[in-house]
Structures are given as C-alpha cells and as structure tokens.
Amino acid sequence: MNRSIKIEIIESEEDIKQKYLQETDKRRAERLHFLYLLKTRQLSSLTEGTKLLMHHRHTLSSWLTNYEQGGIEALLERGSPPGRKSSVSEELKELLEEKLSTEGFASYKDAHAFMQQHDYSGDYNSALQYLKKHHETRVKVSRPQHIKQDKEARDAFKKTLVKSSQKKSLKPLNRKTSKK
After folding, report:
1. Phi, then psi, of 33 in degrees rounded to 5
2. Are residues 127 and 111 in contact, defined by beta-carbon separation less than 8 angstroms?
3. Per-residue DSSP letters for 57-80?
4. Would you kindly state where each structural domain of the chain is located, as residue ranges?
5. Which terminal Cβ of the chain has fewer Cβ within 10 Å, N or C?
6. Spatial CB neighbours of 2, under 8 Å, sequence gap ≥ 6
7. pLDDT digit string (tens) for 46-97?
C-alpha cells in the first residue's frame, strides 16, 4: 500500500537535525532520522520509508502514531523489554555492595547464606550467576598443590635451580659479510 503520509511536524528541521546528531542511542536516532526525512519531504510514503530505513511499514506507522499522540517525546520513548523482575531486592543489592566493598565473603556459599538471611528466595546457582554478572566476583583460591608433595624436596630443588640471571649468556656469532 503506497499511500502518502499526511502529518504535520511541529519541530523545525534544525531542531530535529540537532537532536539526531546528539543522540547516542541508535534506535532513537533512527526515529529522529525518519522524522527528519518526513519534515524535509524526502519521504512521501511508508513504502519509500521501508526501502530507505529498512523497517517494516507497521513499525514506521507505529512511530507516526506515537508522534501524533505525544509529540517527539512519545516518538523517542522506548518501552522496556519484557522479562522477569530480579529476585534480588534493591535493599539486598545495597547490602551486597557494601559487604563486598568492605570485607567480602569467604566463598559463594557464604554469600548465598547471607542473601538468604535477607529474604532472597533464589537458589545457589542463581546467586552465583547474579554475583558474577553484577558484581564481577571471582573465587580467590591458591594454586593447587598435590597432597603427597614433599616440601623438603621442593625446597631443595628450588635451591639447586639456576636462576636465569646466573646463567652464562651466549654471545651471538658475528658473521663477516664478504664484499665483492
């Protein structure tokens, strides 16, 4: 369907262009670009808009409807994506941030127990993933050593080991270039 777009755009070309150039969000910038093209009469139908902007005509039509109903603010407003709310309350987030910045936890198990004391209903793995993702936590463990390792033999080996600074360095061979 190639019907022409008949809409009055209140903002000036310069205002729209300025907002477009300052916009950092790509999706909002696309909407401002669409509005700019309409204002400058470079687009006359939704079909032209779909070819130029690579969006479906239904998307462009909903952008127009949003603009007609609430102006440029409604056009630029983007809804939040659907999804489950976090099982970690704002209060618990603050407590975790404080605890991690001061003393921390000995293990993820301790962190999970702390979270459960503060009305966290999630399981251990959910707590682990939350802490890794939002607080960038890592387990601090020492390098593993075998339980049957002989400490005296290890220390003796370290003493006899020649350090790299004590090794004799080999001098590179000098090649004489023959002149012809």
Report:
1. -65, -45
2. yes
3. HHHHHHHHHHHHHHHHHHHH--PP
4. 13-76, 90-135
5. C
6. 45, 46, 47
7. 889 899 999 999 999 999 999 999 999 999 998 877 888 888 999 999 999 9
